[in-house]
Amino acid sequence: MTTPTTALDWNRSYRNGDHHTYWELSHPSAELVGFLAARGPGAGRTALDIGCGTGWDAIALAGAGYRATGIDLSEEALTLARARAAEEAPEGASPAFRQADVRDLPFPDGTFDVVVDRGCFHHLGGEDRAMYAGETARVLRPGGCLYLRGSRVDSFPFKPLTAQGLADEFVRFGFVVGPLLPFHLQTDAMSLPAYACVLTRTTTSDGANA
């Protein structure tokens, strides 16, 4: 890994319960619930939750009618997510969970209609961001979208979202980048100044519509 944290670091954090101190949210995120309400029923479309942690947002996607998959580097997080889904997910509509690296996603091209990310991208820098953009473009169907949420602040371990940075990384992979909307990323223990942004996958490269 070229990022400051490794899969082993994340596993240790979840094993020790550090996620409760920093990033855990014990319910689906309010901004995702609003996003899903605005989009209407998932109606069997496919959705991917990147950096799913203990699974709440993947469960919300399933509850909205999506065939949802959550991925995370940490098997410890996925163990918690599967246990939570067994208790909280709609009957017959539990999300799938699998260990994966966003820089090398284990899915065929055009698998998903929606990709959501609450706090994975803002841990990446440099070449890893380009790999992320390329992989999310690859697994999204044309017309699909990435709902990205990440830090406004440049302070370890966060690398901020900026309009220019998103344009530099995503437009070349066929995304149209929407406005960065400020809000606060809430956890059970803290609040982080953040941006939310919808990036839409077009049918051609360089952000041009077919």
From TrEMBL:
Family matches, as SUPFAM superfamilies: S-adenosyl-L-methionine-dependent methyltransferases (SSF53335)
Short name of one Pfam family: Methyltransf_25
Q: Which organism is it from?
A: Streptomyces canarius
> Where in this chain does the record put each Methyltransferase domain?
48-144
Protein name as catalogued: Methyltransferase domain-containing protein
* InterPro entries for the chain: Methyltransf_25, SAM-dependent_MTases_sf
Question: Which keywords are on file for this protein?
Answer: Methyltransferase, S-adenosyl-L-methionine, Transferase
